[in-house]
Amino acid sequence: MSSAASSGTRMPAESSSCEDNFIQCYNKGCGQKFDPQTNDTDSCLYHPGPPYFHDAYKIWNCCNKKSTDFGTWLNYPGCTRGKHNGEKPADIVKVAAVKEIRPEKEEDVIVWKGLNKPAERKAIEERKEVALPIEVTAGASAALQRYREQEGNAAAGTELRIGAPCRNNSCDKTYSGPESDSTPCVHHPGRAIFHEGMKYWSCCEKKTSNFNAFLAQAGCEKGKHQWSVNEQVQHVRDDWFSSNGTITINVYCKGAVPDDVRVSSDGQMLRLHIVHGFGKKETDLIYDLWGEVICGESRVVIGERKVSRLMFRFLNVNSEEVRLMNWS
């Protein structure tokens, strides 16, 4: 009895003594203390990738787990196993200092009326949208030539068809006959600007942080319709992957015509106009880049099988797939 009682009183002291030797793990997503003597290669479950924040979302870059709730995001279990890390990083983020921002509703639009000057206004105005250089591989040129020979060199149809959409920004009208030319085209004549999470048209500056709300903004001027003779494809399949410290987004559209592919960027926004389907279809895409790319180091390469665009270091385009590579 006395021996058992004696051992029972010693156990907490021994446990406390062991815990005194434990070290705090600084791997993201772990938060536990560990014994350096038993630190194995699978002891820690953590997030190896950096966290990043976009609009109302908090996201782990390594596994793409995201949430608008900060507590939920912090409690996501790690996605990779490895050793605990007892070295405190120099740039450790104090999450307690991060303030939550109310997620913007779909209909919310912030309009600047000139009462307060936007931050770094000069820098925004000086940001220019530039066309990225385009290269065409021999295989892509040969594939297009074969198709044209098989079709008897018939050019893509240039006849205006019923249902043809207007190409002006934000105009949702379609061609229903000659009378359509007399209807007003309510559109945005300016260019899209993306700066510090805000999206707006340079012509009217109705600002919003919500991308869908930005795309749904009604035009601010009336003008003449610009009807398209090709089939407009608004939704194309895309995916993404990371490799060698970069992120690649693939947008699939087969049979791109090199002479009618245009890619431009202002460093924070990417705009694409792709004529594909061997000249019978066209797609316009705008990407809000989650970081700044170097336009001078970007290029477009049109290949035989896919259209690829690689951002930040370089940009590729090929005939069946459009690939976007962001920042590392």
TrEMBL record:
CDD domains: p23_CS_SGT1_like. Keywords: Metal-binding, Repeat, Zinc. GO terms for molecular function: metal ion binding. Gene3D superfamilies: 2.60.40.790, 4.10.1130.20. Pfam families: CHORD (PF04968). Residues 25-84, 166-225 form the CHORD domain. SUPFAM superfamilies: HSP20-like chaperones. It comes from the Eukaryota. Residues 233-328 form the CS domain. This is CHORD domain-containing protein. InterPro entries: CHORD_dom (IPR007051), CHRD1 (IPR039790), CS_dom (IPR007052), HSP20-like_chaperone (IPR008978).
